[in-house]
Amino acid sequence: MVFLEFEQPLESLYEQLEQIKQIEAQGDVDVSATIRDLESKIVQTKKEIYSNLSGWQKVQLSRHPERPYTLFYIQKMFTNFVELHGDRFVNDDKAIIGGLAQFDGRTVMLIGHQKGINTKMRQYRNFGMANPEGYRKALRLMKLAEKFDIPVITLIDTPGAYPGLEAEERGQAEAIARNLLEMAQLKVPILCYVIGEGASGGAIGIGLGDKVFMLENTWYSVISPESCSSILWRSWDFKETAAEALKLTADHMAEFGLIDGIVKEPLGGAHNDPDAMAVTLTKHMKAELKALKKMSSEERINHRVEKYSAMGRFQVKSAIAE
Amino acid sequence: MEEESKSWYQRLRHGIQTATKSKKETPDGLWHKCEHCNETSTVKELKENFFKCPKCQFHERIGSAEYFEMLFDQGYLRLYDDLLSYDFLEFTDLKAYKSRLESAVQKTGLDDAMAVASGTIDEQPLVIAAMDFRFIGGSMGSVVGEKIARSIDFCLKHKTPLMIISRSGGARMMESAFSLMQMAKTSVKLAQLAEAKIPYISLMTDPTTGGVTASFAMLGDFNLAEPGALIGFAGPRVIRETIKKDLPEGFQTAEFLLDHGFLDFIVDRSELRSQLSTLLMLLENRAKPRKQATAKETES
Ligand SMILES: [Zn+2]
Fold first, then answer.
1. Range of the domain at B107
2. pLDDT tens digits for B249-292?
3. Is the pLDDT of residue B295 over 90?
């Protein structure tokens, strides 16, 4: 188990529990009461810690090394996944995966960022930071889905689009922009979930949809708290302050009307009980897909236009003067 | 935007400094020193040369008003000047967004980082939405997004082509996810314009980076740029820090983008008006006007 700074009280409780369990294994003393005590203490402590997380703490949870990624959900929630590779022009981006799969008895097109599960895989997946080819593969698959009238589900989890030399040469900005334009008018349902990090253009590049949801302990922002700190505070030391100022957590995003809702995570975060997380997400997706399928493509597109057109806060001069 | 905004702040400061500097050094009739070739010319010469250095043709950063004056026939209608940004998140870094806005308004006399006008070029209607870098680094917040959205509604209603002149460091961090969502908002509206088959011309000027490049700037039916303009997604400094190597010369310039297939053409500012006129004429599929379109005087 990996414990974050703010989870330290839990770490010692778990250590104690471990020791008591060893004593129990020796079979000399009855320690069941102590175990029960410790276990309820753990639940109590978890509730205290997780009911009051700061923005920065949620950012840390969203990056927890044991947090489930796209491939986990594909394995748990979908059947007959057939991965489809490549953008047909340059290469196959490993930071975004996609393919057809079965969900709730019907075929869906799945697209998601994938971070690696260990050091080697993290490099292989470029830490979930896609190049233009990732966004172009995603678009190719979305157009394929449109052709065969298959709904699109995207899972967002990226620290950002890759800021590399080749990425610029091959048009990172164009790739993201093109996706936004095409997703705006895609005839099939698009259902998006932020399952970890939702950093900036790299996230929204597969994140424009009929409905967008965030898991409870994720973040979505125009910039990471670290980069924001370095630019606006001119120091890397203000990431906690920046995380608060950016109001990047799911509850803020829902309150602003910039997302359509929050999916609750198991106590302590998705990584504490990935299977339970998958069950919750499955239930949520089923209901949302069902509702989206009831609408005509025209209705969905109109709704998309209206929803995104309404995003933004400003004042009108004449109204102020009155 | 995460990637570009590191350099956004530098450019912002640079932008403000140059603006103040050139104001002091170059009141009308005085001298202008080119930051590119260090040669001096008179401000009158500079203006007559479309705000390009008369010696080296370096394109000075100009604002929305200069483009409107330079491009439109006599008389045009300004739109949506009544939209104002405000600090709805109560965002405070080293400075409160509220006071950042106040000082930007005070320093620039502008309402926000974009202005819109409807007019004609050689009697051909066009709506131009142009960004002002002097206003918080030309950053895209809710007002920029709303002005673009309303411009597109105007274009849809009047079947008028749209041009957006980008000059921006990217998204406005002080509006957090609201600024990010302007990427989606402007793209959704541009998709409507595309469905209606109304032409959209994007002109990228120095600099065009971040969320602006990754949304409306790159989505033109025609992607144009001014010579030498910095155009990219991530800022050069961020890329350098990521790849830990020096960047090749000319990286992320307009010429670089043309070479890599992302621009239709680069246009010298002195040719911009006539090129637009020709393009609009071709799109209208009319006979070429008898009188060759000539660049209009820029003095107002
Ligand atoms: Zn010069």
1. 61-284
2. 999 999 999 999 999 999 999 999 999 999 999 999 755 555 54
3. no
Whole-angstrom CA distances from B159 to A190, B200, B275, B287 are 30, 11, 21, 20
Cβ A24 vs Cβ A188: under 8 Å: no
| B73: in domain | yes
Q: What is the pLDDT of residues A184-198, one digit of tens each?
A: 999 999 999 999 999
DSSP letter for each residue of B242-295: HHTSPPPTTTTBHHHHHHTT--SEE--HHHHHHHHHHHHHHHHTPPPPSSPP-P
**What's the CA gap between B195 and B37, in Å, rounded?**
45
Q: What is the pLDDT of residue B28?
A: 56
Q: Does B230 lie at the interface with A, CB-CB under 8 angstroms? A: no
Q: What are the φ and ψ backbone dihedral angles of A79, each rounded to 5 degrees?
A: -120, 160
Q: Does residue B163 lie within any of the structural domains?
A: yes
Q: Which CATH number do you get for residue B202?
A: 3.90.226.10
Q: Which of B164, B180, B241, B243 to mutate to test the interface with A (most CBs of A within 10 A)?
A: B180
Integer Rg of chain A from CA: 22
Close Cβ partners of B247 (under 8 Å, ≥ 6 residues apart): A165, B236, B239, B240
Which protein residues have their CB within 5 A of the ion that is ligand 1? B 34, 36-37, 53, 55-56, 58
- The answer to whether position B296 is within a domain reads no
DSSP string covering A84-110, please? Answer: ----SSS---SSEEEEEEEETTEEEEE
DSSP bridge pairs for B127: B118, B162
**pLDDT tens digits for B121-150?**
999 999 999 999 999 999 999 999 999 999
How confident is the model over A129-151, as a mean pLDDT? Answer: 98
A residues 76-115 closer than 8 Å to B (CB): none
Q: Is B43 helix (H, G, I), strand (E, B) or coil?
A: helix
The ipTM is 0.95
The CA distance from B217 to B114, in Å, is 13
Look at chain B and report how many structural domains it folds into.
1
Distance CA B102, CA B105 (A): 5
Q: Is A322 on the interface with B (CB under 8 A)?
A: no
What phi and psi, each to the nearest 5 degrees, are found at residue B265? -165, 160
CA distances from A130 to A164, A252, B204, B221 (A): 10, 27, 25, 26
